[in-house]
C-alpha cells in the first residue's frame, strides 16, 4: 500500500478524501493496479460527494475489485462505476455482487471486457434478485456462456429496476437466448437488450420472437452478428406484427436472405411503431428489396432503413425508388456496398425529384457510372431536402464528378471521393482567363456563362482582401450538343466541358502579380468597353500587348461589353468593328501575333439570358476543343493525384497553415500511389496548365543563382526537390500578393519602397502567425517581387528605417532624380572608358524592371535603386541603367564606366536577356551601341548591333564614327564589351545571313598554338599510361607517385618558361576535364574494365586531368599542413573540407562551379564567370555529395604519395574526414565555435608577441567572413522555432558548410589559371 501511494495512490486518495466537491473522477488508462484500487476504495468509504468513478482500461484484478466492493457496502453517493477493460475474474465479481445486495445508490455498473465466467454471472444474478437500484448492467465481451445467461434470465423475472442489459459477445447460444426469452415474458422494466454476436441460431431467435409478441416495454433489440437465417427471421416478423413497443431492431450480419426479408416486409405493412431497421450483410437480393419496397409504400413509421452490404442490384433499387416517390416517413436510406448501377441510380434520381422527406442517402461502393451520375445531378437541382449524399467509390468519371459538385445546394454534404475508375479517362478541363479593365463586366460575364451559378474552385484562408481583389477562381460546366457522324445518320450527343475560370482583377496595381499566371494552353477572354475608341493607345491594345508579352500566339476570344449604352448605335457598331480590324492588323504588323477565335458583343451586366450568350459559349467550346490536352486520354491515377493534392490543401487549411508544399512532398505523394517520376512530372504539368496548382520550377544552372532565395524559372526547366508548389492559387493571389504588391494608392503603407518585417506583420498580414508570414516573404522573394536588403544596398532615398530586417519592394521605389554626386554627366578621371548600350522595345510590362532589380541584387551587385533606374557597382566598373517611356516605345539605357566596363555591362544585359526569355517571350528588343561623344541638345548617335556593329567587326576598314563630331569610336573601346553580347544576338538569328556567319567566325576565340611545354606534358602522361597498362603488379600508389614526379618535372619547365604557358595548359586541362566528368561514373565503378576496353582513352583522361590535379592539390595541402602539429583535429577536418571543395571544383569547373567559388575571392571568376552564391551549397551537396565521396575513395591511394614529399603529411586521415563530413555536414557544427576561439587566441598571442598570425588564423577577408558566418550560425541555432522550419534547416546547413569550407585561406592564385583580382568581384554580405 505504501508503494502504491508513493506511485500516485496518494494523489488519488487525496482527491477522494479531501474537501473537493467534485462529482466525477476519471482514472482511465492510468495503469492502476490492485494496490491503487485498494487505496481508492479506502477513500470511497468516507467520500460523500463522488457520483461517478471511471477506472476503465486499467490493471485491476480480483483483489482490487474486492476492495472496491467493500467500499460500495458503505458508500451512499456513487451512482456510476466503470470497471470495464480490467482483469477482474469470478472472485472479484462475486465480491461486487455481495456489495450490490446492500448498496442502494449505484444505478450503472460497467464490467465489460473483463474475465468473468458463468460463476461470476451467477453471483451477479443473485444480487439482482434483491437489488432495487441498478438500472444498467454491462457484461459484454466476457465468458458467461449459456449458464451465466440462464442465471441472469432468472434474475430478470423478479428484478424491478433494470432497463438496460448488454450481453454482447458472451456465447450464450440458443439455450441462453431461450432462457432470456422466458424472462422477457414476465419482465416489465427492460427497454434495451443487446445480444450481439452470441452464436444464437433460429431456435433462440424463435424463442425471443415469441416473447416479444407479448412484451410491452422492450424498445431496442440487437440480434446482430448471430446465426439467424430465414426461419428465425420469419419468427421475428410474426412478432413485429403483434408487438406495439419495439422501435429499433438490429439484425445485421445474419443470413436471413430474400425469404427472411420478404417475411419482415410483410410485417412492416402492419407494424406502426418500428422506426429503425438494420438488415446489413444479410444476403438480401433484388427479391427481398422489392418486397421491402412494397412495404414502404404503406408503412408510415420507419425512419431509418439499412440494406447495405447486401446483393441489391438495379431491380431492387428501382423498386425502392418507386416506393420513395410516395413514402413520407423515411429519412435515412443506406444501400452501400451493393450492385446498384446506372439504371438503379436513374430510378433513385426520379424519386428524389418527388420525395420531400429523405435526408440521407448512402450509395457508397456501388457500380454507378457517368449516366447514373448525370441523372442524380439533374435531380439534385430540384431536390431541396436531401442533406447528405454518399457516392464515394463508385465508377463516376471526373467530368460528371465535377458536374455533381456544381449541382448540390449549399446545405447538402456530398461525399464523392475515391472513384474506382478503371483504365484511362479523357481530359475535359480547360483553363479560361478573363482580362479587362475594372467595371467592364468580367465577374458578371462569368455568372452569365455559368447560367447564374458559379462554383468556387478553392476555399480561402487568412482572408484579408475583399472579393474583388486578386484573382477569383471558379469552375463552370459548359454543355454543348455535338453531332457524331455515324454510318447512316448524324447522332446528337451532349458533351460537357469543365471551365476553370480565372477572373483577374483589372486595376493597374494588380498587373505586376497577374503576369505570373499568364501562360500558354489557356483560352483568354479579353473584355473591352465598346464605348472607347479602339486604337494603339486604347485599353484593349494595352491588354493585348500585355498578354502577348507573356504568351505569344495566345488563344483569344474578344468580348465587347456595354452594348446596351444608348451611344452604341448601329452606325457606331460598324465603326468600332472596323476600328477593331485595324487595331489587330496594326498589332500584327508590329510582330504582336494572336490567335483570335472570334469577337462577341454582349451586355455583360445582364449576360445570363443575353441573345449573344449562346454564341460566346460556342466560341468557348470550340476554343477549348483546340487546346492540345483536351479530350486526351489520361491515366486514371492522374485524378487520384489531383484529388490527393486537393485533400492536402484542405487539411492544411483546417490546420490554419498555408496550402503549399515542397516538390519532394509531391513526389513522395505520387510515389505512394505507385506513380513514376515521369508520370508525376506529366500530371503536375497538366494540373498547372489547368489552373489547379501553381509552381515555377527552379533551373539548376540557368542563371548564376541567387543569394538566399533562388529566382523562379519557367516550369519547363528541371525541378528542384525543394521548389514550392502552391496548392491553392486563389489563396496565393488574395493573401500573399494582395496588400503587399498590389496596394492601391490611397491605401499604400509602403514608403519609398522599403519595409521591415514588422511592417509586413502589422499592415499586410495582420493577425496571421509570424512563422506563416515568413513563408509568405519567402514566396515573394521567389517570385522576384521583393528582396532582402544587404548592407551594401542603397535605395534611392534617405527615408529608410533601420529597425529590423529590411526589404525592398522595387515597384514602390521613388522615381530617379539626377544627382551629380552619384552619377555625373561626364566620367570621373578614374574611369577612362565609357560604353553605352540602348535596348528598345514597343511595349514593356509593368514589373519587368522591378524583377530586373531583384535579379541584379541576387548577383550580389552593390545597388542604388529607384523605380526607373539603378546604379550598379561591381567593385571596379559601375553602370547606370535607366528606363525611358514614351507613347511609341520603351528604352533601357545601360551606361558603363571604369577601367574594365567589359566586366560588368555584358553581364547586366545577359541577366536582362534571361529574364525576357524566361518570362516575356513576346517582347522583342532592338539593341544599339550608343555614341559616347556627348553633344549638348543633340540626339546621340546609335549603331544597330546586328547590322552596323556587326559590319564593323567584319570589315577592319569600317569604323563607327560620330555624325556630330566625326570622331571615330575605336574598336578596342567597344569590341571587348560587345563581344559576348553580339555573339548571343547573332546565334539567336533563325536565318543567318553570310555576314552573320562571318561575324560569328571572327568572334570565335583562336586556339593557341601547341607549345613545347604541352608536348612535354603529353609525353610525360603517355609514359605513365604505358606503366599503367603494362604492369599489373604495380600498386596504384606507385603509379601515382610516378605520375606526380613526371608532372612536377613538366611543371618546372613551365614555371621557367612563364606563367602564360601554365595558364594555357590549365585551360586545356579544363576542356579535357569536361569530358572526364561525363565518363566519371563508369570510371569509378569499373576501373579494370575501362583499362581493358579503351586503355588509351582512359589513361589520357586520367593522366591529363586527375593526376595533374592531384599533384596540385597535394602541394596545396603541403603548404597548409606546415603548422599541422599545432592544429586541433577539428581544424584538420576543416582543411579536409577545403580539399573536398577543390576536388569538386575540378568536377564542375566549367558549368557547375563548386562552393569554393562562393567564398574565396581569388577563385571567384573562371573564364569570366562571375561566380555563384553561397546558398547554392546545400543543394549542390545533396546532388553531388555521393559523387564526390566516390571520387575521394577513388583517389585516396594516389593521395598517399603526398607523404613522399620531405616533411609532407599523410593525408589519408584527412580524406576520411572529408568523406564523413560529406555524409552529414551538420556534424561540422559542434566544433565551429572552438575553431573560432582557437583562431582568436592565435591572433591574440601573435599580437602580444608582435609576431605574424599563423595561416589558419590570418585576418584575411575570407577568414573574417567565415568567423562572422559561424557566429551568426551559433546565434541562429539558438532560435529553436526558426531552426525547425524547412527554411531554417536549409540555412543552417548553408552556414555550417560554408563556414567550414572557407575558414582556411585559399591559395594566392588559382591552379587552373582562372584567378582574377578580388577587386573585380561584386561585393557580398554575410549570409
Automatic annotation (TrEMBL):
<keyword id="KW-0723">Serine/threonine-protein kinase</keyword>
<dbReference type="Pfam" id="PF16095">
    <property type="entry name" value="COR-A"/>
</dbReference>
<dbReference type="InterPro" id="IPR001611">
    <property type="entry name" value="Leu-rich_rpt"/>
</dbReference>
<keyword id="KW-0808">Transferase</keyword>
<dbReference type="GO" id="GO:0005524">
    <property type="term" value="F:ATP binding"/>
</dbReference>
<keyword id="KW-0547">Nucleotide-binding</keyword>
<dbReference type="InterPro" id="IPR027417">
    <property type="entry name" value="P-loop_NTPase"/>
</dbReference>
<protein>
    <recommendedName>
        <fullName>non-specific serine/threonine protein kinase</fullName>
        <ecNumber>2.7.11.1</ecNumber>
    </recommendedName>
</protein>
<feature type="region of interest" description="Disordered">
    <location>
        <begin position="1240"/>
        <end position="1264"/>
    </location>
</feature>
<dbReference type="Pfam" id="PF13516">
    <property type="entry name" value="LRR_6"/>
</dbReference>
<dbReference type="InterPro" id="IPR057263">
    <property type="entry name" value="COR-B"/>
</dbReference>
<dbReference type="Pfam" id="PF08477">
    <property type="entry name" value="Roc"/>
</dbReference>
<dbReference type="InterPro" id="IPR032675">
    <property type="entry name" value="LRR_dom_sf"/>
</dbReference>
<keyword id="KW-0418">Kinase</keyword>
<keyword id="KW-0342">GTP-binding</keyword>
<feature type="domain" description="Roc">
    <location>
        <begin position="423"/>
        <end position="627"/>
    </location>
</feature>
<feature type="region of interest" description="Disordered">
    <location>
        <begin position="1297"/>
        <end position="1327"/>
    </location>
</feature>
<dbReference type="InterPro" id="IPR020859">
    <property type="entry name" value="ROC"/>
</dbReference>
<dbReference type="Pfam" id="PF25497">
    <property type="entry name" value="COR-B"/>
</dbReference>
<keyword id="KW-0677">Repeat</keyword>
<dbReference type="InterPro" id="IPR032171">
    <property type="entry name" value="COR-A"/>
</dbReference>
<dbReference type="GO" id="GO:0004674">
    <property type="term" value="F:protein serine/threonine kinase activity"/>
</dbReference>
<keyword id="KW-0067">ATP-binding</keyword>
Amino acid at each position: 500500500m505504501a508503494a502504491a501511494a508513493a506511485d500516485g495512490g496518494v494523489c488519488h486518495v487525496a482527491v477522494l478524501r479531501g474537501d473537493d466537491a467534485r462529482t466525477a473522477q476519471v482514472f482511465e488508462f492510468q495503469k492502476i493496479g490492485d494496490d491503487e484500487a485498494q487505496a481508492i476504495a479506502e477513500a470511497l468509504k468516507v467520500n460523500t460527494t463522488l457520483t461517478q468513478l471511471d477506472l476503465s482500461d486499467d490493471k485491476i484484478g480480483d483483489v482490487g475489485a474486492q476492495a472496491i466492493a467493500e467500499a460500495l457496502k458503505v458508500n451512499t453517493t456513487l451512482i456510476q462505476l466503470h470497471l470495464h477493460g480490467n482483469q477482474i475474474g469470478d472472485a472479484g465479481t462475486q465480491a461486487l455482487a455481495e456489495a450490490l445486495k446492500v448498496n442502494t445508490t449505484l444505478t450503472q455498473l460497467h464490467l465489460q471486457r473483463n474475465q468473468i465466467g458463468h460463476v461470476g454471472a451467477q453471483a451477479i444474478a443473485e444480487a439482482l434478485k434483491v437489488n432495487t437500484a441498478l438500472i444498467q448492467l454491462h457484461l459484454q465481451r466476457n465468458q458467461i456462456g449459456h449458464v451465466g445467461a440462464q442465471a441472469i434470465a432468472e434474475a430478470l423475472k423478479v428484478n424491478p429496476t433494470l432497463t438496460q442489459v448488454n450481453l454482447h459477445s458472451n456465447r450464450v447460444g440458443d439455450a441462453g437466448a431461450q432462457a432470456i426469452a422466458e424472462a422477457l415474458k414476465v419482465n416489465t422494466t427492460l427497454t434495451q437488450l443487446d445480444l450481439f454476436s452470441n452464436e444464437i441460431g433460429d431456435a433462440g431467435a424463435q424463442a425471443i420472437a415469441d416473447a416479444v409478441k407479448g412484451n410491452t416495454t422492450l424498445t431496442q433489440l440487437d440480434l446482430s452478428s448471430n446465426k439467424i437465417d430465414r426461419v428465425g427471421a420469419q419468427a421475428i416478423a410474426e412478432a413485429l406484427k403483434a408487438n406495439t413497443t419495439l422501435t429499433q431492431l438490429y439484425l445485421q450480419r445474419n443470413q436471413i436472405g430474400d425469404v427472411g426479408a420478404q417475411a419482415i416486409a410483410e410485417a412492416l405493412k402492419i407494424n406502426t411503431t418500428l422506426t429503425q431497421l438494420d438488415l446489413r450483410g444479410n444476403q438480401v437480393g433484388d427479391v427481398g428489396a422489392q418486397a421491402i419496397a412494397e412495404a414502404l409504400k404503406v408503412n408510415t413509421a420507419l425512419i431509418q432503413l439499412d440494406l447495405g452490404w447486401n446483393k441489391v442490384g438495379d431491380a431492387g433499387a428501382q423498386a425502392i425508388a418507386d416506393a420513395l416517390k410516395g413514402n413520407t416517413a423515411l429519412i435515412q436510406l443506406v444501400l452501400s456496398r451493393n450492385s446498384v448501377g446506372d439504371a438503379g441510380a436513374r430510378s433513385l434520381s426520379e424519386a428524389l425529384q418527388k420525395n420531400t422527406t429523405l435526408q440521407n442517402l448512402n450509395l457508397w461502393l456501388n457500380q454507378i457510372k457517368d449516366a447514373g451520375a448525370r441523372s442524380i445531378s439533374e435531380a439534385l437541382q430540384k431536390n431541396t431536402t436531401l442533406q447528405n449524399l454518399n457516392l464515394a467509390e463508385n465508377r463516376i468519371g471526373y467530368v460528371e464528378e465535377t458536374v455533381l459538385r456544381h449541382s448540390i445546394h449549399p446545405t447538402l454534404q456530398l461525399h464523392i471521393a475515391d472513384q474506382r475508375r478503371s483504365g484511362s479517362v479523357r481530359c475535359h478541363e480547360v483553363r479560361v482567363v478573363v482580362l479587362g479593365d475594372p467595371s467592364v463586366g468580367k465577374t458578371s460575364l462569368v455568372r452569365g456563362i455559368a447560367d447564374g451559378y458559379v462554383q468556387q474552385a478553392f476555399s480561402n484562408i487568412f482572408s484579408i482582401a475583399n472579393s474583388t481583389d486578386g484573382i477569383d477562381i471558379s469552375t463552370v460546366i459548359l454543355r454543348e450538343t455535338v453531332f457524331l457522324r455515324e454510318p447512316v445518320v448524324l447522332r446528337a450527343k451532349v458533351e460537357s466541358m469543365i471551365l476553370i475560370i480565372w477572373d483577374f482583377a483589372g486595376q493597374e496595381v494588380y498587373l505586376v502579380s497577374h503576369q505570373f499566371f499568364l501562360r500558354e494552353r489557356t483560352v483568354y477572354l479579353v473584355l473591352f468597353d465598346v464605348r472607347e475608341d479602339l486604337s494603339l493607345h486604347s485599353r484593349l491594345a494595352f491588354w493585348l500587348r500585355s498578354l502577348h508579352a507573356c504568351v505569344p500566339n495566345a488563344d483569344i476570344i474578344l468580348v465587347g461589353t456595354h452594348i446596351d449604352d444608348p451611344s452604341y448605335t448601329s452606325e457606331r457598331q460598324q465603326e468600332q468593328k472596323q476600328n477593331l480590324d485595324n487595331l489587330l492588323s496594326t498589332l500584327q504588323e508590329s510582330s504582336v501575333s494572336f490567335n483570335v477565335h472570334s469577337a462577341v458583343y454582349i451586355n455583360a451586366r445582364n449576360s445570363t439570358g443575353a441573345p449573344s450568350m449562346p454564341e460566346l459559349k460556342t466560341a468557348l467550346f470550340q476554343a477549348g476543343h483546340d487546346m492540345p490536352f483536351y479530350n486526351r486520354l489520361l491515366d486514371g491515377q492522374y485524378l487520384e493525384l489531383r484529388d490527393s493534392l486537393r485533400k492536402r490543401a484542405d487539411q492544411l487549411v483546417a490546420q490554419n497553415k498555408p496550402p503549399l508544399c515542397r516538390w519532394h512532398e509531391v513526389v513522395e505523394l505520387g510515389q505512394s500511389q505507385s506513380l513514376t517520376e515521369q508520370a508525376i512530372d506529366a500530371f503536375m504539368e497538366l494540373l498547372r496548365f489547368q489552373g489547379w496548382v501553381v509552381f515555377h520550377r527552379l533551373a539548376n544552372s540557368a542563371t548564376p543563382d541567387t543569394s538566399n532565395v533562388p529566382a523562379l524559372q519557367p516550369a519547363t526547366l528541371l525541378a528542384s526537390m525543394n521548389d514550392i508548389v502552391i496548392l491553392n492559387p486563389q489563396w496565393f493571389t488574395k493573401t500573399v500578393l494582395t496588400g503587399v504588391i498590389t496596394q492601391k494608392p490611397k491605401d499604400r503603407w509602403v514608403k519609398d519602397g522599403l519595409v521591415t518585417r514588422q511592417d509586413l506583420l502589422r499592415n499586410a498580414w495582420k493577425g496571421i502567425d509570424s512563422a506563416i508570414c515568413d513563408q509568405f516573404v519567402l514566396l515573394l522573394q521567389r517570385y522576384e517581387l521583393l528582396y532582402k536588403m544587404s548592407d551594401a544596398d542603397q535605395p534611392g532615398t534617405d527615408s529608410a528605417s533601420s529597425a529590423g530586417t529590411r526589404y525592398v519592394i522595387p515597384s514602390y521605389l521613388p522615381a530617379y532624380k539626377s544627382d551629380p554626386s552619384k552619377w555625373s554627366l561626364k566620367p570621373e578621371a578614374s574611369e577612362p572608358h565609357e560604353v553605352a548600350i540602348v535596348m528598345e522595345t514597343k511595349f514593356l510590362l509593368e514589373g519587368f524592371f522591378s524583377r530586373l532589380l531583384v535579379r541584379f541584387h541576387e548577383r550580389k551587385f552593390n545597388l542604388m535603386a529607384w523605380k526607373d533606374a539603378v546604379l550598379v557597382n561591381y567593385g571596379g566598373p559601375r553602370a547606370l541603367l535607366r528606363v525611358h517611356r514614351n507613347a511609341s516605345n520603351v528604352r533601357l539605357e545601360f551606361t558603363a564606366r571604369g577601367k574594365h566596363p567589359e566586366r560588368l555591362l555584358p553581364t547586366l544585359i545577359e541577366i536582362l536577356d534571361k529574364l525576357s526569355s524566361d518570362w516575356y517571350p513576346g517582347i522583342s528588343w532592338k539593341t544599339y551601341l550608343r555614341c559616347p561623344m556627348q553633344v549638348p541638345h543633340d540626339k546621340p548617335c546609335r549603331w544597330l548591333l546586328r547590322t552596323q556593329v556587326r559590319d564593323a567587326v567584319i570589315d577592319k576598314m569600317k569604323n563607327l564614327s560620330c555624325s556630330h563630331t566625326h570622331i571615330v569610336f575605336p574598336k578596342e573601346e567597344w569590341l571587348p564589351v560587345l563581344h559576348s553580347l553580339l555573339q548571343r544576338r547573332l546565334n539567336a538569328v533563325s536565318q543567318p545571313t553570310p555576314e552573320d556567319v562571318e561575324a560569328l567566325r571572327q568572334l570565335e576565340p583562336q586556339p593557341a598554338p601547341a607549345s613545347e611545354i604541352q608536348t612535354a606534358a603529353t609525353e610525360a602522361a603517355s609514359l605513365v599510361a604505358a606503366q599503367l597498362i603494362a604492369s599489373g603488379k604495380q600498386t596504384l600508389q606507385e603509379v601515382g607517385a610516378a605520375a606526380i614526379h613526371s608532372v612536377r618535372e613538366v611543371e618546372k619547365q613551365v614555371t621557367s618558361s612563364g606563367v602564360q604557358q601554365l595558364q594555357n595548359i590549365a585551360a586545356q586541362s579544363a576542356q579535357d576535364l569536361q569530358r572526364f566528368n561525363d565518363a566519371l561514373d563508369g570510371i569509378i565503378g569499373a576501373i579494370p574494365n575501362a583499362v581493358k576496353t579503351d586503355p588509351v582513352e582512359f589513361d589520357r583522361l586520367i593522366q591529363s586531368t586527375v593526376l595533374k590535379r592531384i599533384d596540385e592539390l597535394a602541394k596545396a595541402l603541403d603548404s597548409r599542413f606546415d603548422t599541422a602539429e599545432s592544429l586541433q583535429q577539428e581544424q584538420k577536418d576543416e582543411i579536409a573540407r577545403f580539399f573536398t571543395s577543390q576536388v569538386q571544383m575540378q568536377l564542375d569547373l566549367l558549368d557547375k562551379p563548386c562552393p569554393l567559388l562562393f567564398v574565396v575571392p581569388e577563385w571567384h571568376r573562371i573564364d569570366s564567370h562571375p561566380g555563384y552564391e553561397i546558398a547554392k551549397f546545400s543543394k549542390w551537396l545533396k546532388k553531388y555529395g555521393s559523387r564526390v565521396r566516390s571520387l575521394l575513395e577513388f583517389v585516396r591511394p594516389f593521395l598517399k604519395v603526398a607523404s613522399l614529399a620531405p616533411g609532407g603529411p599523410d593525408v589519408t586521415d584527412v580524406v576520411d574526414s572529408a568523406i564523413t563530413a560529406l555524409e552529414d555536414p551538420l556534424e561540422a557544427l559542434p566544433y565551429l565555435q572552438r575553431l573560432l576561439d582557437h583562431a582568436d587566441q592565435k591572433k591574440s598571442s601573435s599580437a602580444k608577441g608582435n609576431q605574424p598570425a599563423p595561416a589558419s588564423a590570418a585576418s584575411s577577408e575570407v577568414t573574417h567572413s567565415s568567423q562572422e558566418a559561424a557566429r551568426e550560425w551559433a546565434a541562429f541555432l539558438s532560435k529553436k522555432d526558426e531552426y525547425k522550419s524547412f527554411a531554417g534547416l536549409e540555412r543552417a546547413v548553408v552556414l555550417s558548410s560554408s563556414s567550414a569550407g572557407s575558414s582556411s585561406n585559399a591559395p594566392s592564385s588559382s591552379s587552373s589559371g582562372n584567378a582574377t583580382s578580388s577587386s573585380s568581384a561584386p561585393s557580398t554580405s554575410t549570409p
